[in-house]
Amino acid sequence: MNKKELLELENQFIRLDSPRAWRTYTGGYRLDELHRLPNPKVSQFPEEWIMSLVNARNTGREDIVDEGLSHVVDPKYENITLKELINQDPSGFLGQQFYKENGETTGVLVKLIDASERLTVQVHPTKAKAEVLFNSKFGKTECWYILDDKEIDGVKPYLYLGFKKGITREIWKELFDKQDIQGMLSWMHRVEVKKGDMVIIKGGLAHAIGQSCFLVEIQEPTDYTVRIERITPKGLKISDFMCHQGLGFDKMFDVFEYVGYSLEEIKESFFVKPIEKYSGLNGKITTLIGYDTTDLFELEKIDIPSKSSIDIPGSKSFSGLYILKGQGKLISKDSQVDINAPEQYFIPSKLGDWKIENTSDSNLEILHFKGPKLHD
Predict the structure, then answer these.
(1) How far apart are CA 260 and CA 255, in angstroms?
(2) Residue 237: phi, psi to the nearest 5?
(3) What is the dihedral sign for C-alpha 235, 240, 241, 245?
(4) Do 174 and 250 touch, CB atoms closer than 8 A?
(5) Is residue 349 within 8 Å of 318, Cβ to Cβ?
């Protein structure tokens, strides 16, 4: 790609594909429905990755070098990944200040997750633990925004969050050694969730997404997941590596933080209240998770009624969009594109001011997300 082409792309809305990643749990029916596939089904591809520069870590699939990576949707640049594109001019695409602070990375990964079974009990590293254990500058703190609270097979959406009081590393490791799954779950809090709930899962917190959950996840850009169950609820055997991520069956317990909570403390500590950023006749912008809660990322939901538009000021850094519902246009000084659900877009920092216009007779719903907070 020559310099002229790069400069053109840095002033455009860049549409991305919709990569699905293989996981140890099943789901994805509602993702198939969202994409209007002719025969929606439950499969081992329950996640759609959004604006991804991250490879999925799956035993036996190491030869699939771009699994999980986002690609540019443009015949001129067929098969180029977003990661390859950004690496050609990281300062231009990400923003000069953002690149200076973070390097050649967006510092964020977003996913849609549809779980038809409970995920295995797991944990992700804090930033500090990731540096020590994985030589990574990113951990995997994440947040979940619940998109749907519909019961499936009579089961309401739920999560397992955190340990109960009295937990110790010794107790937890003994449960793992015995593979006492009910014992593991009995030491954790099961919490039902409803549409619109926002939950932050900090590194070190034991957790599991429950059956029937359909959610948006925003997270640090890694796939480090320590799993404590060696067989999934539906009977899939988990490889050793997928359990300990290369750390071994003793050191993996360093990733957990053995802090006990009451149920009330879980709800107070990890459920985040969305904040209305803007509201008017032309629409509403709601901050689902903002920099006042974590400096790792930000996620907003934009709702625009029929035949209305909302202006978005330019930023010193990039951002991303996921069109959840409806259709319309993205308009800037040098670029204009028609948008339809469920599409993904990367917004380069050089784009400047832009706006979203709803051209349909129904509501337009969009997720707008950003990477780490700028500090200079």
Answers:
(1) 15
(2) -75, 130
(3) positive
(4) no
(5) yes
- Asked if pLDDT for residue 4 goes beyond 90, the answer is no
Interacting residues of 73 by C-beta distance below 8 A, sequence separation 6+: 15, 16, 17
* Secondary structure of the chain as H, E, C letters: CCHHHHHHHCCCCEEECCCEECCCCCECHHHHHHCCCCCCCCECCCEEEECCCCCCCCCCCCCCCCCCCCEECCHHHCCCEHHHHHHHCHHHHHCHHHHHHHCCCCCCEEEEEEECCCCCCEECCCHHHHHHHHCCCCCCCEEEEEEECCCECCECCEEEEEEECCCCHHHHHHHHHHCCHHHHHHCEEEEECCCCCEEEECCCCCEEECCCCEEEEEECCCCCCEECCCECCCCCECCHHHHHCCCCCCHHHHCCCCCEECHHHHHHHHECCCEEEEEECCEEEEEEECCCCCCCCEEEEEEECCCCEEEECCCCCCEEEEEEECEEEEEECCCEEEEECCCEEEECHHHCCEEEEECCCCCEEEEEEECCCCCC
**Whats the size of the chain, residue-wise?**
376
The predicted-structure confidence for 23-58, as pLDDT tens digits, reads as follows 999 999 999 999 999 999 999 999 999 999 999 988
Q: What is the mean pLDDT of the chain?
A: 96
| CA 159 to chain CA mean position, Å | 16
Q: CA 25 to CA 236: how far, in whole Å?
A: 8
Rounded to the nearest angstrom, the gap between the alpha carbon of residue 122 and the centroid of all alpha carbons in its chain is 16
Phi, psi of 7 (to 5 degrees): -65, -35
Q: Evaluate whether 289 touches 272 at the Cβ level (below 8 Å).
A: yes
Is-contact 143 198, C-beta < 8 A?
Answer: yes
What is the Cα–Cα distance from 70 to 55, expressed in whole angstroms?
Answer: 10
Tell me, what amino acid is at 282?
N
Instruction: For residues 104-116, give the mean pLDDT.
Output: 97
Give per-residue pLDDT as tens, 171-188. Answer: 999 999 999 999 999 999
Task: Name, in order, each residue with C-beta under 8 angstroms of 3's C-beta and a sequence gap of 6 or more.
Answer: none
